[in-house]
Model the fold of this input.
Amino acid sequence: MKAVVLVGGFGTRLRPLTLSTPKQMLPVVDRSMLEHVVGTLASHGVDEVVLSLGYKEDVFRDAYPDAVCAGVNLRYAVEPEPLDTAGAVRFAAMAAGINETFIVVNGDVFTDLDVGEVWRRHHEVGAEGTIALTPVDDPSRYGVVPTDADGRVLGFVEKPPRDEAPTNWINAGTYVFEPSVLDRIDGGRKVSIERETFPAIVADGALWAVQSDAYWVDAGTPATYLQIQLDLIDGLRGRAVPGVSAEASVADDAVVEHSVVMAGAVVESGAVVRDSAILAGARVAAGALVEGSVVGPGASIGANAKVAGLSIIGYDTAVEPDAVVVSSKIPEVV
Done:
C-alpha cells in the first residue's frame, strides 16, 4: 500500500518551536512526530510513503538521507507553492506516479485507527473515497461528517457553530482514495479537500466513512503536542514508554513528575519538572520550576526561575534566573 503524508504546513500554532523545524520533525519522547506517524502506517501494511513537502523540506531530507523512515521507503514531492490540502494530495500523488488505490494522512495526527479497516470498507462498498471519522466533544473546530446508516456520507460541513453541528463525528484526517479523485482536483491552484473535493464526491454519492473511537489527537497545538508525549508515558497507546531518557541527567534531589526529559537534557539540583516536556539538550537549572510547559532543544531555564501555564520556550532560548514565565511563548512570535 502507498500513502501520501501531508507535512507541508508552517506549524504556526507551535511557534517558536517550528521557526526552525517543521512540525512533523519535532521530537515526541524518543523520535520525531513523523516517525511515529509512519511507523503506525507501516504496522497496517503501508510500504511506501510520499511526503508532500513545502516548509523547510530540506530538514526532512537531511533527517532521512537514505529515504527510509520507520522501515518505510520515502519519496519526496516538494510543492512549488502552497496548494492547500487537495492540491497537495494531487501534486504528491502525481509526482510519485500513483495510479492505484492509495491512503492519505495528515502528518500531525496521532491515532490508533485501524487503517486496514478503512481500506477494506472502501473496497467492500466500491467507494471513490472513504474517510475515517472520530468523535469529539466540540466539533466546531473541524469538518463535521453526517452519514446514513450504511456509512455513506451525506454532507461535509466545515467548522460549523457548536450548537448547529449535525453530528459530533468529524473528519479524522485519514482517507482512502481511488486515483479518479485526482481528476477532480484542479492543478496549479490552491484547492481545499474539505471545502471543494469532498462535497463534489458527496454530490455523486461516492464518499463513504468509517467511524472509530480509537485514540486520536490532532497534535498541532502546544496543548496537544504536550498531550501526545504524556499519553505515551501514561500507556494510553499500548505499553507505557519511559519518560526520562537514559541519556538525560537528573540530579538525585531533583523532582521529575509525569514528564518527558529527552536525551542530553539536564535537570539540576532542587529543580522541579512536572507535567512537562524537556526537549533534547535543554537545561533546567537549580531550584527552577517547569510545570505544564515545553522547553525546546538547547534552551535553558535559569536558577529559581518559574515556567508554567503551557509556556513554550524556543530553541536555544535562555530564561533568566528568577524570571517568571506563565502562559507565554519565548521568544514571542506573531
Remarks:
- The chain has a mean pLDDT of 94.
- The helical segments are 33-43, 57-63, 84-95, 115-125, 180-183, 193-203, 222-233.
- Residues 249-330 form a domain with the UDP N-Acetylglucosamine Acyltransferase; domain 1 fold (CATH 2.160.10.10).
